[in-house]
Design goal:
The protein has 239 residues and is α/β, with parallel strands linked by helices. The chain has helices spanning 14-20, 33-42, 54-63, 87-93, 95-98, 110-117, 132-142, 161-175, 181-189, 192-198, 208-213; strands at residues 8-13, 24-28, 47-50, 68-73, 76-77, 102-106, 123-127, 146-151, 222-228, 231-237.
Length: 239
């Protein structure tokens, strides 16, 4: 039986939504940043740094050649990065590539949203379908008065069905609000934000990425963003 939580849930979207977020905040980026992030920890990464500024992310890589830079600008892999923001490519690299390494992660929507929300929010959790149930468990355990769900959308500029639907799923897990998984699939898969992968016309948008990103509840941990020194880092926590 689903245990629901009575609390105020605020829905926000895109860059402005991240800037306005209050309370415990979940920054949602399904395609693809926060479907990638749990994979770093799954494969044994020692440290994950979020940096929204491309030049700063590249600077960290230049100063620390042993770091792995995973980054994109408007979906296109950053010049000088080791990998683009693709979960299927990360999975192909596997544990031997990431174990005990420091990852620098830069993305247009998700990572930028975390950076924008950080100073105002009480706590920031990375959100996606693959961690949704763990995210809900963490929130229920903390029992805050207010939760803000920010669906970052396409390039943080326009709403996207995968991020809005992930927020719907979190509302279902937290408050028992209606959620129809078949309708959710239809709303996501036949829209351009998924079709641009499925059509396979761009190498940096692998067909396999949405297959992974739309899996529900693969990981039993949450990822929390915290400032450590002058860096914004991600920490794994089991609810």
């Amino acid at each position: 039986m689903l245990r629901v939580l009575i609390l105020e849930i605020i829905r926000k979207s895109c860059a402005r939504g991240a800037e306005e977020a209050e309370g415990l905040t979940v920054i949602i980026d399904v395609f693809r940043a926060f479907s990638c992030a749990p994979l770093f920890f799954h494969f044994g990464a020692k440290r994950v740094i979020l940096n929204a500024a491309p030049y700063k992310a590249l600077g960290l890589k230049r100063e620390n050649p042993e770091f792995i830079l995973v980054g994109e600008i408007n979906e296109v892999p950053m010049k000088g990065a080791d990998l683009g923001n693709s979960p299927s490519q990360i999975i192909q690299k596997g544990e031997s590539y990431f174990k005990d390494k420091t990852i620098v992660h830069r993305t247009t929507a998700g990572v930028t949203g975390v950076s924008s929300a950080y100073d105002k929010a009480d706590e920031i959790i990375l959100g996606s379908f693959v961690m949704a149930k763990a995210v809900a468990a963490h929130i229920k355990k903390k029992n805050p008065d207010r939760v803000t769900l920010v669906a970052m959308g396409a390039r943080a500029q326009t709403k996207s069905p995968e991020d809005e639907t992930c927020a719907d799923y979190l509302e279902y897990l937290l408050a028992g609000r209606p959620y129809n998984p078949v309708k959710a699939f239809k709303d996501i898969v036949f829209q351009q934000t998924a079709q641009k992968f499925i059509q396979g016309t761009k190498k940096y948008l692998p067909r396999e990425d949405p297959v992974f990103c739309l899996q529900h509840d693969l990981f039993d941990f949450v990822l929390i963003a915290k400032r450590l020194g002058d860096q914004l880092e991600v920490f794994k926590q089991v609810p």
